[in-house]
Amino acid sequence: MPGIGYRWRGGPPLSIEDYRRAARRALPDMAWAYVDGAADDQVTRRDNELAFRRWRLRQRGLAGVRAPDLSVEVAGERLALPIVLAPTGIIGMAHWQGDLAAARAAEKAGTRHILSTGSSYSLEEVRDATSENHWFQLYPFGDRVKVGELLDRAAGAGFTALFVTVDVPVRGNREAERRAGMTVPPTLTPGRLLDVAVHPAWWFNLLRHKRISAVHYAEGARTLSGAVEAVRKQERYMQTDLDWNDLAWMRERWKGRLYVKGLMDPEDAARAVDVIGANGVVVSNHGGRQLDRAPATLEVLPGIVERVGNRGEVLLDGGVRRGVDVVTALALGARAVLIGRPYAYGLAAGGEAGVTDVLRILREEMTRALILMGCPSAAELDGSWLLAGMGEA
Ligand SMILES: Cc1cc2nc3c(=O)[nH]c(=O)nc-3n(C[C@H](O)[C@H](O)[C@H](O)COP(=O)(O)O)c2cc1C
After folding, report:
1. 323-to-162, 297, 337 alpha-carbon distances in Å
2. Does 165 contact ligand 1 (Cβ within 6 A)?
């Protein structure tokens, strides 16, 4: 695979799972626990993935499908494939190119990246490094003046859609991270230092590029003390009692398209669209990183699609690892999916080229699946393409 500076054990990665293994090898334990981990016992994180495997796909023969059209419209943009790169904070932990690599790879693939409030690169840096208008994710911290300033910056830098994440009123219990020493500040033991030492490329890039922080939270966030300060601020700013009035204020304040990310209940989704005036919702449990034992996103998707109807766009994330997963989500009514960890694995293993390759794999898998199903386009996918599975895979 050209451009990926990583020696693959046993050949180049063929699947997202291969990329996961490559990422595991590329990252020290601390960074791996952050990128791959989830909350508590990681039940919801596992359920997200398993839920896709319960469905079986209808297979129509002799349908004459040659090149299925994967394109969908999201937030007023025609995307070449129904896969958007989810917001991931401090993703410079996976690879120093972080958000810049993600945004560039997304636009090369004809889709979009959603820049996190907790990103490793600023809104303006992403704007300067890309040619498309990307989308911004907001963590609605309590201080409306600061939120307003950030929204003005995002609009000024050409970000066209806002994704307000509402499932982090408090941080999930990421035990795996804490066990690995990913505390604030990091807890460094001789064993952990040794682990970092056996990943010299990661360590070197960390020191050289200093991209392990949340730059929107603190000036000078790129020094270690700045990074610690940024994470502390991020925690301090969390608004535990966030409510619908806050969301209404954000809807009023942001003039572009607005989506609510992290809703899991049909009533909430309908309220966001019908009462608040959101353009859509992202059905998400934060990849199982927040409330463990929340249901799998795919499980609650049909109820939300039914309740929202065609009044808002319903997107989904959590556990998408194969092209057939995307097909299943769309058949159950999602307009598109977001992926988080899959591109973080690509990033960890190969920087921008790794993210590009992850998107290629999912595109090829999805194209092949639609040809085999005899389905001409992503737009045609609906419940008639699904059969209840025979239980767990
Ligand atoms: C390392 C990491 C950081 C994340 N940071 C954010 C964030 O800053 N804002 C946000 O809304 N969601 C964040 N998420 C959640 C993702 O946007 C997305 O909901 C989730 O990763 C989807 O599940 P998947 O990883 O199984 O694809 C993060 C996820 C990961 C893995």
Report:
1. 26, 17, 11
2. yes
344, 116 Cβ separation under 8 angstroms: no
Q: What is the pLDDT of residues 264-305, one digit of tens each?
A: 999 999 999 999 999 999 999 999 999 999 999 999 999 999
Low-confidence ranges of the chain (pLDDT < 70): 1-10, 219-221, 390-393
Active site residues: 286
- Angle in degrees, CA 45, 99, 200, rounded to 5: 85
To the nearest 5 percent, what fractions of the chain are helix, strand and coil? 50, 10, 40
Q: Is 95 close to ligand 1, i.e. is its CB under 6 Å away?
A: no
Q: What's the CATH number for 16-377? A: 3.20.20.70
Residue 183: predicted pLDDT: 82
Distance CA 265, CA 268 (A): 5
Distance CA 178, CA 183 (A): 6
Ligand 1: residue whose CA is nearest its atom 19: 286
Give the whole-angstrom CA distance, residue 102 versus residue 120: 11
What does the pLDDT read at residue 5?
47
By three-state DSSP, how is residue 280 classified? Answer: strand
Query: Which long-range contacts does 231-235 make (Cβ < 8 Å, 24+ apart)?
Result: 231/90, 231/184, 232/184, 234/89, 234/118, 234/139, 235/171, 235/184
Question: Does pTM top 0.90 for this prediction?
Answer: yes
Map residue 128 onto helix, strand or coil. helix
Asked if 72 and 333 touch (Cβ cutoff 8 Å), the reply is no
Give strand ranges (E) for 58-184.
72-74, 77-79, 83-85, 114-115, 135-138, 161-165
pLDDT tens digits, 136-167: 999 988 889 999 999 999 999 999 999 999 99
* Closest-lying ligand 1 atom to the alpha carbon of residue 90: 3
What's the pLDDT score for residue 234?
Answer: 81
* Residue to substitute in 42, 88, 258 for testing ligand 1 pocket (most ligand atoms within 8 angstroms of CB): 88
What's the CA-to-centroid distance between 142 and ligand 1, angstroms? 21
Ligand 1 near 290 CB (within 6 A) = no
Under 8 Å between Cβ of 377 and 370: yes
